[in-house]
Amino acid sequence: MEPLYEGKAKRMWATDDPMTLRMEFKNDATAFNGEKKASFENKGRLNNAISTLIYGMLEKEGVPTHFVRQIDETNVEVRRVEILMVEVIVRNFSAGSFCKRTGFAEGVAFSEPVIEFSYKSDELGDPLINDDYIREMKLATPEDLAFLRASALKVNRLLGGFFERCGLRLVDFKLEFGRLVFDPSVIVLADEISPDGCRLWDLKTGEKMDKDRFRRDLGNVMEAYEEVLKRVKEEVGR
Q1: Beta bridge partner(s), residue 176
Q2: What are the backbone dihedrals phi and psi of residue 2, each rounded to the nearest 5 degrees, phi first?
Q3: Are 210 and 32 in contact (CB under 8 A)?
Q4: Cβ distance 10 to 76 under 8 Å?
Q5: Of 13, 47, 81, 231, which is the most buried if we count CB atoms within 10 A?
Q6: Torsion sign, CA atoms 106, 126, 37, 45
Q7: What is the pLDDT of residues 59-89, one digit of tens each?
């Protein structure tokens, strides 16, 4: 198969079907815009399994995604999309860069979800942008932006309840969207949903169960991912 793209955590491969791609989850981990790097055995397998189960749940709840099927432990087949260069970040509690920018203490519950947009650019460090930036940079139409916001809030409601049943607090997460190449009028959820892109805290202990364990050198990174997968499997199986 022809390699099309390699990012920090995944590779994309062409398939015999021009409308689908193979997405491979890598064992690589990065943080702070690629300044910190490591590799963890089984990371690709764990993220693939978690994301596959969550995407299946979201599809059943009426959220269109690029997911087609799981191929093996580290690969999935996805519909081919043109990724929008606008990442959507949903925050339910203060954490991470929000605290650095505002001086908020970590773990403050917001009265309503906070929505942020960032420009998908590794070279620029994925800077925050607003509706006016998006308009002038021609990254999305106002109608597209309204759809992204509404979709992100719907996903947040679904994921928040789902993870709560898993004994986890959904602190914040990022989403990517893309246009179907065979029907650009259709925008679907793309990329992945895993502890790499979600902050998840244990409801009872407050323990971090996500990539912050790698960012902050807390140790037991894959043990936390394994525990998240175990709980997600149990909830999906109910």
Answers
A1: 190
A2: -85, 125
A3: no
A4: no
A5: 47
A6: positive
A7: 999 999 999 999 999 999 999 999 999 999 9
